[in-house]
Amino acid sequence: MVLADLGTRLRDALSSVESGSDQEIQSMIKDIVTALLESDVNIKLVARLRDNIKNQIKDSDDKNPSHIRKRLQKIVFDELCELVDSHQEPPQPKKLKNIKQKGPAKLNSSGKKITPKSNSYVIMFVGLQGAGKTTSCTKLANYYKKRGFTVGLVCADTFRAGAYDQLKQNAIKAQIPFYGSYSEQDPVWIAREGVERFKKEQFDIIIVDTSGRHKQEQSLFDEMVQISEAVTPLQTIMVMDGSIGQAAESQALAFKEASNFGSIILTKMDGHARGGGAISAVAATKTPIIFIGTGEHIGDFEVFKPASFILKLLG
Ligand code: GDP
């Protein structure tokens, strides 16, 4: 079931409660459970949500139908938020010029100004091929650029033919500096070189795009580890296709083990996203979704906030 349909089904379930009778409430809970399961939300999570709703509604003696409806809405809303909320905040990049402004410039023994060690905020992207990594790299770079950060993009995807061209075109269009190579085949070398260059130029944020594969493979995970060791990212972001179903959870767990990513960007949440699988992945890895991709264009990118996401879902 696509996300928009899930929203309709949840709304219908909530509005089916009129008198607030036990029978109506049970039927509403059943409808919510069925809708979530059909959207690929993990069965254990759905069972927990069902039990939580049941427990909370039974705690009240108020039999006023309109109060019951309001209470139910609040309980269901809170429980759905709980499903997508990891309660973790990823670290936030800082502008280097703000950091640099602190205190007078340091001088070495011969009176020369010491260039401070670069504190560039390095972000590494991981994910399967086709998930939307390259697209999301530019979207994220553009997001930070618009907020006054200096951002550099590094294309360390040497596996997919055309990945560098794609990143380059996107970067040029958005006027974001980029680094990559047509001839160099070693992604670790490119990643290190690109990051070093942007660090030297004191960029606030450096975003490294890495290769994907069609499926989880040891070679992909080995490469991710090597790149990570070479560029020591402050944040690793997993890009996940929001339209994949049940596979999302095991995919996220496998990537978590290999790259210990700290946040997720869910892509393709427009159109045919099922979303439920990806939501379960968040719960399984206890990792926050930070942005969602809502289209192919650079501006189709939204900060993910659990409450507003659920509010929108419920219409
Ligand atoms: P990569 O292999 O992970 O780097 O994936 P790409 O960035 O090349 O994206 C694969 C395809 O998905 C491309 O056709 C993108 O335009 C498309 N895509 C990426 N993000 C989104 C999104 O949020 N919504 C939609 N509809 N398409 C997207």
From TrEMBL:
A single Gene Ontology CC annotation of this entry is: cytosol
Q: Which GO terms describe its biological process?
A: SRP-dependent cotranslational protein targeting to membrane, translocation
- Asked whether the UniProt record includes RNA-binding among its keywords, one would answer yes
Q: Cellular location of this protein?
A: Cytoplasm; Endoplasmic reticulum
Q: Which organism is it from?
A: Scheffersomyces spartinae
GO MF term (any one): GTPase activity
Q: Which family does it belong to?
A: Belongs to the GTP-binding SRP family. SRP54 subfamily.
Catalytic activity, reaction form: GTP + H2O = GDP + phosphate + H(+)
Specify whether NAD is a keyword of the entry. no
Which intervals hold domain SRP54-type proteins GTP-binding? 288-301
| Chain segments annotated as transmembrane | none
Name of the protein in question: Signal recognition particle 54 kDa protein
Domain characteristics, as noted in the entry: The NG domain, also named G domain, is a special guanosine triphosphatase (GTPase) domain, which binds GTP and forms a guanosine 5'-triphosphate (GTP)-dependent complex with a homologous NG domain in the SRP receptor subunit srp101. The two NG domains undergo cooperative rearrangements upon their assembly, which culminate in the reciprocal activation of the GTPase activity of one another. SRP receptor compaction upon binding with cargo-loaded SRP and GTPase rearrangement drive SRP-mediated cotranslational protein translocation into the ER. The M domain binds the 7SL RNA and the signal sequence of presecretory proteins.
Task: Give the residue ranges for region: Disordered.
Answer: 87-112
Question: What does the UniProt function comment say about this protein?
Answer: Signal-recognition-particle (SRP) assembly has a crucial role in targeting secretory proteins to the rough endoplasmic reticulum (ER) membrane. SRP is required for the cotranslational protein translocation for ER import and preferentially recognizes strongly hydrophobic signal sequences. It is involved in targeting the nascent chain-ribosome (RNC) complex to the ER and is proposed to participate in the arrest of nascent chain elongation during membrane targeting. SRP54 binds to the signal sequence of presecretory protein when they emerge from the ribosomes.
Entry keywords, A to Z: Cytoplasm, Endoplasmic reticulum, GTP-binding, Hydrolase, Nucleotide-binding, Ribonucleoprotein, RNA-binding, Signal recognition particle
Q: How does it assemble?
A: Fungal signal recognition particle consists of a 7S RNA molecule (scR1) and at least six protein subunits: srp72, srp68, srp54, sec65, srp21 and srp14.
